[in-house]
UniProtKB/TrEMBL annotation:
Pfam families: 4HBT_3, Acyl_CoA_thio
InterPro entries in alphabetical order: Acyl-CoA_hotdog (IPR042171), Acyl_CoA_thio (IPR003703), HotDog_dom_sf (IPR029069), TesB_ACOT8-like_N (IPR049449), TesB_C (IPR025652)
Domain of life according to the entry: Bacteria
Species per Swiss-Prot/TrEMBL record: Streptomyces asiaticus subsp. ignotus
Annotated ranges, domain Acyl-CoA thioesterase 2 C-terminal: 153-282
Record-stated family: Belongs to the C/M/P thioester hydrolase family.
Lineage, highest ranks first: Bacteria, Bacillati, Actinomycetota, Actinomycetes, Kitasatosporales
Acyl-CoA thioesterase-like N-terminal HotDog domain segment(s): 33-109
Keyword list, A-Z: Hydrolase
Protein name per the record: Acyl-CoA thioesterase II
CDD domains: Thioesterase_II_repeat1 (cd03444), Thioesterase_II_repeat2 (cd03445)
Gene3D superfamilies: Acyl-CoA thioesterase, double hotdog domain
Length: 296
């Protein structure tokens, strides 16, 4: 399989090993910890597969408890909390090598009519005229480093920053803690709404904490902080396709005490607010010659 979007769909296709127990793959990549969006997306797949499929997920709340190890399978145990007339609730625990690394509660709701209002989408240029991330790196460095090229080949999403990347401390002066990107899967994801929801859950963890970093250090290049997602919450407002362009607007209202809070809003091309996201992350300055910490 060479298409990264197909690999993402395959990654989200869990093995059912018991009625409410699933096993997910964890790619053996050169990462210090399993990507949090992968665990959240797989956990939501596990939750969704224990429902009747008629109620879309409307919210999830999750905690990242321990770093997962790349290359080691993850087992997802689902608890059926409630099956009501309008709502279904599931709790999922992710276990790797006998230790709980993540838990998630997801709620599913039968669609029904109601009031319609939302904050407007910001006025930003469309994605077609914006450079790809690889183009921005190549323009800044004059070439595309092999490590970045390998990452780009595995990347399941096309990512285009609305504002040009800042590469120096001088460029960061006066920068507000905000960021916005256009994203879409690099290939078709099929027609299963749960796959699109879980793929977007995967994508939502990719760069939300960028909003915290923007005033402090360049987003691409050597990092001065050990960063790790601590918790993650999402509210799904409307149906969507993750293989079509969506705008991911992010802001950080506060960073203090070694943690940073980030909020995200996801819009489609028509300006409809699709998803709201909130995440808190760990931010610890790295000491010289120090790698990222193993645990929070």
């Amino acid at each position: 399989m060479t298409n990264p979007a197909e690999r993402l769909v395959d990654l989200l296709d869990l093995e059912r090993i018991e009625l409410d127990i699933f096993r997910g793959r964890s790619p053996d990549e050169s990462l210090q910890r399993v990507f949090g969006g992968q665990v959240a997306g797989q956990a939501l797949v596990a939750a969704g597969r224990t429902t009747d499929g008629q109620r879309p997920v409307h919210s999830l709340h999750a905690y990242f408890l321990r770093p997962g190890r790349p290359g080691v399978p993850i087992v997802y145990q689902v608890e059926r909390i409630r099956d009501g007339r309008s709502f279904t609730t599931r709790r999922v625990v992710a276990i790797q090598q006998g230790r709980t690394i993540f838990n998630l509660t997801a709620s599913f709701h039968s669609p029904e009519p109601g009031i319609e209002q939302q904050l407007p989408m910001p006025d930003v240029p469309g994605p077609e005229g914006l450079p790809t991330l690889a183009d921005e790196v190549r323009a800044h460095l004059g070439t595309l480093p092999e490590a970045f090229a390998r990452m780009e080949r595995r990347q399941p999403f096309d990512i285009r920053y609305v504002e040009r990347l800042r590469w120096t401390d001088e460029e960061l002066k006066g920068t507000e803690p905000r960021s916005a990107v256009w994203m879409r899967a690099v290939g078709a994801l099929g027609d299963d709404p749960l796959v699109h929801t879980c793929a977007l859950t995967y994508a939502s963890d990719m760069m939300l904490l960028d909003a915290v970093r923007v005033p402090v250090e360049p987003l691409w290049g050597p990092r001065g902080f050990d960063m790790a997602s601590l918790d993650h919450a999402m509210w799904f407002h409307r149906p969507f396709r993750t293989d079509e362009w969506f705008l991911y607007e992010q802001e950080s209202p506060v960073a203090t005490g070694g943690r940073g809070l980030a909020r995200g809003r996801i819009y489609d091309r028509a300006g409809r607010l699709l998803v709201s996201v909130v995440q808190e992350g760990l931010f610890r300055p790295l000491r010289p010659a120090e790698g990222a910490a193993d645990d929070g």
